[in-house]
Amino acid sequence: MKVRYMYGRSKICVDDLAPKKLFLKDASWTLISCIDSDTKPASLLGKSPELNKVSSLVALGDNILSPVIPKDEIFFGYDEVWFSSSKILEPCPFSGILTSERPDYKKIIPWLLKNKIIMGIGENNYIIDRERMHEMDQMWPCPYDVMGIL
């Protein structure tokens, strides 16, 4: 099987990257599957003052889908965000996987492939399409460890 994804750990998380807009160039769709430790972020739509500021957010199952990367500061820690260059069709089946201490990356591969996910970032964990790995050096403001390939 061809290696498709690489994963690892970093001292960076979503709330560090979002204000600086340090994301992949063509990642035009964003799926939020965990926000501030809540693995059902869609339940916060209409309730959270921070999320209410962002008009592009819509529910996709328990997740939140946005056709653009939110420019408002809505990430505060223990968040999990997925990026794709095409519209994400399904919610993440394992919300919070990248915020856990030991993510089980193998069980999420079918979802990543089906939804053409370029990258996922969680609390100090990431998974990225191997062919996009060179972009990590340009956007990541601190060292990261590659821990495995899938």
Describe this structure in words.
- The model has no long low-confidence stretch (mean pLDDT 83).
- Strands 3-4-2-5-6-7-1-8 form an eight-stranded antiparallel β-sheet.
- It has helices spanning 14-17, 49-52, 109-114, 134-139, and strands spanning 5-10, 29-34, 58-60, 63-66, 80-84, 117-121, 125-129, 144-149.
- The chain starts with a strand and ends with a strand.
- The protein has one domain (5-142).
- A hairpin with a 2-residue loop joins strand 3 (58-60) and strand 4 (63-66).
- The protein contains four helices and eight strands.
- The chain has 150 residues and is α+β, with helices and mostly antiparallel strands.
- The longest helix is centred in the C-terminal third of the chain and has 6 residues, at 109-114.
